[in-house]
Design goal:
49% of the residues lie in helices and 13% in strands. It has 378 residues and is of the alpha/beta class. Strands 3-2-1-4-8-6-9 form a 7-stranded mixed beta sheet, with helices on both faces. It has a 3-stranded mixed beta sheet with strand order 5-10-7. It has a two-stranded antiparallel ribbon with strand order 11-12.
Length: 378
């Protein structure tokens, strides 16, 4: 009797996960590559928070300064978030453009919000009606700004853009690149299905008036993360404006993968720490079910090895179905946004994904992690 109940529970978790994957696949089909040949009339402010980015800051600066976009129609606002290295000095010494300004967050400004306070301070000191945010460890093609802005129309309030890891030679780098692409593809598909859930602050854009209309980060300033997807979800729920995904490879920004497993773990724990704070409690419940599906796979394997061979069969069914469904979604998303070579480490990435999601998900509940040489506590 117990075996039957467990098998039914595992089957229900699998069915729910397949329904979730189907939504992503459907949403990817709905994404449009067509975009306007014209660009917003509004002035644009690109806000770049940074902390201890001495290795990356000048490359980011150069790529933003060389955008194929009229310099009298956009500004770049670099916001120093208490760097303890020479990032700020490097920027000040090399800045030669009038449309690029460099500011620092005041000591007493929203102390617990960290990166979010830097973005908020940058917005408050910007003049653009359209805000674009990116990260200081990112590199942008010359067509990036033009490409992401081309998806704006009068009905659009928020745009999420693709982010890709730079190529690395190690197997770990290649697995990270595919795993991260999977997150981008998932976010794109959910936006295409009109269920915007995840995005990345390294490449998002929104109208300042919409940001102000939904209260900006006012209800999130106690959280150190969430400057991207929590805002996107709020705009989708509380405004009349649409959320779009910039389905254009020229709109991609590239960034570096984590250097080692410890850095990767801290990053994923930081991302997981905001999930329980989504305003949509039904969404939180669905994400918990997805987490339980991932957890169920090793649980089934253990039950199969220790108690009954039937659970070895259910393990194969769950894992095999997951592989097939995710490969279909990844293949479609990669064809839209990335290069096919990305899929080569697919099987190894799948094996790596299950334990990291289980561990990072549990760790993220406590909300404590390290980021940019800073210990963050909820």
């Amino acid at each position: 009797m117990t075996d039957t109940i467990l098998i039914i529970l595992f089957a229900l978790l699998l069915i729910h996960y397949l329904a979730f994957i189907s939504v992503i696949y459907y949403g990817l089909n709905n994404l449009r590559t067509s975009h306007s040949a014209e660009y917003p009339e509004e002035f644009v402010s690109v806000v770049v928070p940074f902390r201890n980015e001495t290795e990356n800051i000048l490359n980011c600066y150069k790529s933003l300064a060389e955008q194929d976009y009229p310099k009298d129609r956009y500004e770049v606002v670099f916001v120093n978030d208490f760097s303890t290295d020479d990032s700020l000095e490097k920027l000040n010494a090399n800045n030669k453009f009038e449309n690029i300004k460099i500011i620092s967050v005041p000591d007493s400004y929203s102390i617990n919000a960290h990166k979010k306070r830097a973005i908020r301070y940058g917005i408050e000191n910007s003049v653009g009606d359209i805000i674009v945010t990116t990260d200081a460890d990112c590199i942008h093609s010359t067509k990036w700004l033009k490409s992401i802005l081309s998806f704006f129309d009068n009905d659009t309030g928020f745009i999420s853009g693709p982010v890709e890891f730079l190529d690395g030679n190690s197997a770990f780098s290649k697995i990270q690149k595919l795993e991260f692409a999977g997150l981008v593809i998932t976010g794109a598909g959910l936006i295409g299905a009109e269920k915007p859930t995840i995005c990345n602050a390294a490449n998002i854009s929104y109208r300042k008036k919409v940001y102000e209309e939904v209260g900006g980060f006012t209800y999130q300033m106690n959280l150190s993360s969430g400057d991207d997807e929590l805002l996107m979800q709020k705009i989708h729920k509380d405004s009349k404006f649409k959320v779009k995904f910039a389905n254009n490879r020229n709109a991609t920004v590239k960034t570096t993968a984590s250097k080692n497993l410890t850095e990767f773990y801290q990053q994923r724990k930081r991302w997981a720490s905001k999930g329980l704070f989504y305003n949509n409690k039904m969404l939180v419940f669905k994400l918990i079910l997805i987490y339980l599906f991932y957890l169920s796979i090793p649980v089934q394997l253990i039950l199969g090895l220790l108690f009954s061979n039937v659970f070895l069969i259910t393990t194969l069914i769950s894992f095999g179905t997951k592989l097939l469904a995710e490969f279909m979604v990844l293949k479609k998303g990669v064809n839209l946004l990335f290069e096919p070579v990305l899929l080569r480490p697919f099987f190894w990435a799948e094996l790596f994904q299950i334990p990291y999601i289980i561990i990072a998900g549990i760790s993220g509940l406590f909300g404590n992690y390290k980021w940019k040489n800073r210990k963050v506590r909820r």
